[in-house]
Amino acid sequence: MVDDKVLSKDEILELVASRTWYHRYEVSPGVMTPGRMPIDAKMLLDYYGLPQDLTGKRVLEIGAWDGAYTFEIERRGASVTAMDIQNKDRTGFAVAHRINNSKAKHIQCDVTYLNPKDHGKYDIVMFLGVYYHILHPLLAFQNIYNVLNDEGTVFYSGHILEYSYNIDGLMAKHKPELMAIVDKIPLTLFSRGCHANVWSNWYIPNLLCLNDWLATAGFKVFKQQVHEEGSTMAGAAKKITNFKLAPDWDANRWYDLSSHKEDMKGYKRILFFGAGGRLEGLQEELRQSVPAGAIVGVADNDPAKWGKTIAGYPIVNPKDIPALKPDLVIIVSTFAVEIFEALDKLQGETGLFFEMVNVDANRLLDTSCGREVY
């Protein structure tokens, strides 16, 4: 904020009266805008988990509208860019900007076209009450990923499907059917009509679907809160550095062992999973690349193999993995997908943590560019 000129209260009231407002908030001490949607920006940003001190941080607010959040974020010390599809002079933003002597930048843009070349990079992106109003929500989250610095955070909120029967007549009619599946299957409602009496409420995902959007765009959710009465949620997610659009079993892929000789030196207890032909074919690489004494065994789902050896290493029941306490599991099996899922479940049940990689020489699919390339 800068105090180039202090406006009188009468001047502030005159400026406020010159615009049509959507948000009702305290634009200046003791002065409320006459919007129909009340917002206590400080309280809500605290609720979302935005830090009180943002000194030195660059923040992008998508869907700023009248600027209720913009100026509170600026008060916390951030350098703020407000983005909206509307011209700032058609909303209350320009007036509020003048009243607050703000340095915040405003850009008129659709999040569909957000990109780092034209709009820069940020430490934090605020995406509050927007994703369900746009026709390409997954693309929006992908674009947000691209404008965030490494380890950047996105704060987001919006409608969800779980409790939509509380706010929408059509969903209320189908409450039993909705409740039967809404926490079991990732799905979204697309409404061309007026979901909750608002024509631009296009996509209403359940939490499973919303979290899949975020994961697909390269984010790891670390906070989520649900408001049942309004069927809304608020969350925060971190950008995953060097994210690759692929499931773990494909993203964590090695094409051989020899190229990862240095990587394996950082692990003390290495377990292989899959006592079959693939492992036998790696015996020479095992001797040359894996640190001596680091292999604690080979797990396999075939009971007939338990107690035997392969390449000189004992074959064990996967249930014995917690006792072996590996810090790296190298999967050498055609059933990599199922094994990844089972090991991920095992970690969740036992609290054990280990890295997982899939050794597979097949280079049939490159998903690093975000689309299938055969």
Could you give a short description of this structure?
By secondary structure, the chain is an alpha/beta fold.
Would you kindly provide a written description of the structure presented here, covering whatever features stand out?
- The protein has 374 residues and is α/β, with parallel strands linked by helices.
- The chain is 29% helix and 25% strand.
- Residues 363-374 have low confidence and may be disordered.
- The N and C termini lie far apart (53 Å).
- It is built from 15 helices and 20 strands.
- The strands form 5 sheets. Strands 7-6-5-8-9-13-12 form a 7-stranded mixed β-sheet, sandwiched between helices. Strands 14-20-19-15-16-18-17 form a 7-stranded mixed β-sheet.
- Read across the widest sheet, the strand sequence of neighbours is 7-6-5-8-9-13-12
Taking pLDDT < 50 over at least 5 consecutive residues as the criterion, the unreliable ranges are 363-374
> Helix count, per DSSP?
15
Global morphology? elongated
Category by helix and strand content: alpha/beta
Radius of gyration: 26 Å
Determine the strand fraction and express it as a percent band: 15-25%
The helix content is: 25-40%
Total number of β-strand segments? 20
Q: How confident overall, as mean pLDDT? A: 92
The major beta sheet can be summarized as:
7 strands, mixed
What is the strand and helix layout of this fold?
Layout: H1 9-17, E1 23-24, E2 26-28, E3 31-32, E4 37-38, H2 41-48, E5 58-62, H3 68-75, E6 79-84, H4 93-99, E7 105-108, H5 116-119, E8 122-128, H6 137-147, E9 148-159, H7 169-173, H8 175-181, E10 188-190, E11 203-205, H9 207-217, E12 219-227, E13 232-239, H10 248-251, E14 253-254, H11 261-264, E15 270-273, H12 277-280, H13 283-289, E16 295-299, E17 309-310, E18 313-316, H14 321-324, E19 328-331, H15 336-350, E20 355-359
Parallel strand pairs: 1-4, 5-6, 5-8, 6-7, 8-9, 14-20, 15-16, 15-19, 16-18, 19-20
Antiparallel strand pairs: 2-3, 9-13, 10-11, 12-13, 17-18
